[in-house]
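Kindly inspect this chain:
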Amino acid sequence: MISNSKTIYTRALLFVLAVTFTQYALAQKKIAVENSVFWEVTGNGLSQPSYLFGTFHLLSHRYVDSLTNVTNKFTTAKTIVSELLIDSTMTMKMMASAQMKGTTLNKLLTPEQFKQTNDWLHELSGYDLTMFNGMNPMTIEILLMTMMQQKYFPLDPGQDVVMDLYFQQRGTRDKKQVIGLETFDEQTHAIFGQFTYERQAQLLTTAVKKRNTAEEELRNMNRFYREGNLGKLEALMYDEMYTAAETAVMLDNRNKKWMQQLPGLFKQQPTFVAVGAMHLAGENGLVTLLRKEGYTVKPIQTK
């Protein structure tokens, strides 16, 4: 049973550590960005267009395959860009990054908070929180989110590949250049490292308190993503409790760092960038940042 719990945990982290939580993107200032998850990048000296595609990290490659214009443009690209490259060392790295030192969940949470979290986890998965007692609270929040998605929008572990990993695998298969914009350590710092264990526990308990509305929010999130409605995704999650400084680490600073790489990649050859959809939105989103650099970035149809 322990090995099964590790399999579930690893799958959850593969879904999410490859990209940042959708909710992390939403404490930024609003700016008028059109509603689309697919964008064409031209101008500023580019001889051929490149593309930005906003992913939803818990959806299957089969959804991607239904987006005919996305897959057609993917074939024209010579370079495929993801947030993070997933390789054979990822599982052990993820397990290590999630382990706490010097404390456990039952010490960070009150008995009531531990029970409430355990009850929700058990309801969603059949597993008890004691099996994950050494893992940090943010990992538990990720696990709960992933289990909810699996309950209401299930993937077949024998057939489905989450879309971010799928783009990487297909790019490798098609002999394209496949690169990641950041390292594992950089991404896990944004998700885990910047938060104290106490702050993570606060965020987890807040999420658990909202469990009665979680299903509706999840269904709306899936629907708004499929509609390509970035504005409604932002509005849905705008009440998250991350501070401006936390959001800067989780989102804004990462986007700005990626902007040090993307123009050079676009100039070299046609590039297909697949990153979390909320990285495209807002004042510090990639669409706005590219436009400020002189590129023409226009929304295009996914089908």
